[in-house]
Amino acid sequence: MGSVPAPDDALVSELRSILGPDGLRVDSAERALVARDASVFDRGRSGPVCFPRSADQVRAVVLAAVRHGRAVVPRGAGTGLAGGAVPLGAPVVVALTRMNRILEVDVGARVAWVEPGVVNLDLTRHLRPLGFHFAPDPSSQQACTIGGNVANNSGGPHCLAYGVTTSHVLAVEVVLPDGEVALLGGLDPEPVGYDLRGAFVGGEGTLGIATRIAVRITPDPKAVRTLLLAFDSTVDAAETVGAVIAAGIVPAALEVMDRRITEAVERYVHAGYPTDAAAVLLAEVDGAPGEVGTGAERIADIGRAHGAVSVRVAADDTERAALWKGRKTAFGAVAQIAPNYYLHDTVVPRHALAEVLEEVYAIAARHDLVVVNVFHAGDGNLHPLLVFDRREPGIMERVLAAGSEIVSASLAAGGALSGEHGIGVEKRDYMPLMFGPDDLDHQNRLRRAFDPDCRANPGKVLPVGHSCADIQALERVPTGVWG
Amino acid sequence: MTGRSAGAPGSAGSVAGAGVDREVAAWAEEVGSDGPVAAVGSRTRWGLGGRLASGTRLVSAPVGVVEHRPEEMTVRVRAGTPVAELHAELAASGQRSALPERGGTVGGALAVGESDLCALGRGPVRDAVLQVRYVSADGRVVTGGGPTVKNVSGYDLPRLLVGSLGTIGLIAEVLLRTQPVPAVGTWLTSLGVDPWAAREVLYRPAAILWDGTSVWARIEGHPDDVAAERSALGRLGRWEVVEGPPPLPVERWSLPPGELRTRPAAECGPGWIAEVGVGVVHAARSQPPRPVPAAVAELHRRVKHGFDPAGRLAPGRSVLAGAPGAGPVGGGR
Ligand SMILES: Cc1cc2nc3c(=O)[nH]c(=O)nc-3n(C[C@H](O)[C@H](O)[C@H](O)COP(=O)(O)OP(=O)(O)OC[C@H]3O[C@@H](n4cnc5c(N)ncnc54)[C@H](O)[C@@H]3O)c2cc1C
Q1: Is the pLDDT of residue A53 over 80?
Q2: Residue B273: pLDDT over 60
Q3: Which of A34, A122, A140, A385 maximizes ligand 1 atoms within 8 Å of its Cβ, making it the mutation to test the pocket?
């Protein structure tokens, strides 16, 4: 990580008086820990690390940072995959993990107020006895925070039918980069003014710090059916996905895993997946019993018509849970193949899935790399994982080159840079491939409206020339390594 | 199509970058870069946000459905297209959008941002837009959002534009999410049933309306499920099938759905009809302007100034000026 500049004493003592001795860490171990997230980006530098327990403390920390001319970076669980929480330029890091209370659940109004550090799955567990859940279900839901979900507008397997995080956020209390506090959105359906709530969600920590969030809670479905379809080719699986959507069925989830990842998952958690198929399609329909029954039958038929070699319907909740456990631990299972992975998160139109997948395999082969695919096929959201061992000399260059070609192939097919992981630092310099200069200029106008002085998570999302920060000065990354 | 829009700084004429069609580019030329200007649709909600300054030039967005892809569940449509026309085209493939069909245009519906009466089932309008192309205050074509059903690349300009009343950009073209039209759907009404009990027994109603005495419910879906929902309702009271919802008074309130039991009766005046579970209340009386805290008002000022520094877009109109509640001016809905 290189030498970390020492945080200045006056700022540290101010922060300590705000947060108390156990609310602030300045030791290099802690700073090294928060200098990274779950991405491969390893050039972060953290200043003092704050663990506030209230919105008032967050506000006081932000005001102290303003007085000392330091940037502020909010952080949840650090499971982000685009480097969003990676601090650039030794800013004050505000870790929200101790603000983890579920404040209020109103089943009648179908709303829950939570603090940003509440872990996604903890909310759903809390709601379970009431017959409700929080619909966004990222595979990282055992660890990631709702504040992080809001900042990244995260998705998950079941967002195909239910929509991503923004559809489940009604209001957000935000400490703005200048220390002002604003409640964006509201519990009423059409709050007055611009949809600043909508603008804030997906802002990746560059628009302020969420300190309280009102989320919509969703009633549990009356019926669920989970199917596992096995195919002799990944293309058949991808084409089945396109055909299901084209038939007007909106499944709760449609997930594809290729053979390599299925094998790794089986070794890891013994979920009951066939390991001899080229690809498996995990399909789930939920809702009212009639639509679920018909939907499941039609998916099975469409699968068979597209060459499914087997179709299995989960017999009970145990089998269903095992299949989902397999899917949700897939990234963890990758370690069975190689110690490191680099994950891309692009989206393509569903009709182009098969074609782009073939291209992804070809790109990996050209760079002599192993790629595995496990992805949210229903909405065209690819997740090619390049798996490798970092210690192999020269491998990082090949991995980055292949990643860049995957991004280009997805955009060429009419796709998008990121479906759910965000831009962060990882995709920042790809933004001009998807947006023209005027488009980026307008995104920057939105950012500046929230943060005129560029104090919140500088160096993220927008590339050089459109970012308010001097990115080079923030990073000092050897040229050619990133982007 | 990659949402790329070229445009050399300082020239309003070079907006026809890849993906921007000729009609949109021509409209950007018409909007130009000087003088007060506002987009006009069908004037169904023309009075919202205040009266335009005199001398404001009116422009109408281009029309036409550009491309409907039923298998992607998306449609690209120019903003001047009437919502009814869009829906007629989508219906041919068994689809629809979440936009309300009240005589307006696609651009107007989005600029106003009011959801359909069946928002409970179809979702709010703000969730319908995947990509937006608008003409900026300096006459350029700007693209926000992405071409796919899922996308988190960059800031969410589509949501910022929904409900912005044409004050930060003139919507030219959008890519909308479509949804399948359910196999069957029916409106039912009952006198004296508790609407919250109805909400409780219905799994995914498309709408529940309540006027203090009568309840109307819209249930949609698979025939077996609709039959099951009907028998669940039947256990609460006697229901009658009706053609459609009751006629709605013209004013629109936005209240937290948790406060609907008491507030409409106390505040909305006679003749109100509430959307249970949503919080919109239709009434003859208009909703008093809702207070906006200083920090939020300041954010609004910075957004407006950032996108329209010279104040040429819809001068005189503001999203904070007594929003929902202003009645239709110059033609009902
Ligand atoms: C194994 C694995 C599986 C994953 N699966 C999915 C998946 O299925 N779908 C998906 O969408 N993502 C997935 N992710 C990515 C990641 O988990 C999500 O982006 C998650 O929402 C990040 O939450 P976090 O609490 O870890 O946030 P962090 O990584 O700590 O931060 C993410 C961003 O949010 C900002 N932030 C955090 N808290 C706040 C706050 N209170 N206010 C303002 N900004 C804030 C940070 O500055 C940063 O920009 C996965 C990651 C892993 C490691």
Answers
A1: yes
A2: yes
A3: A140
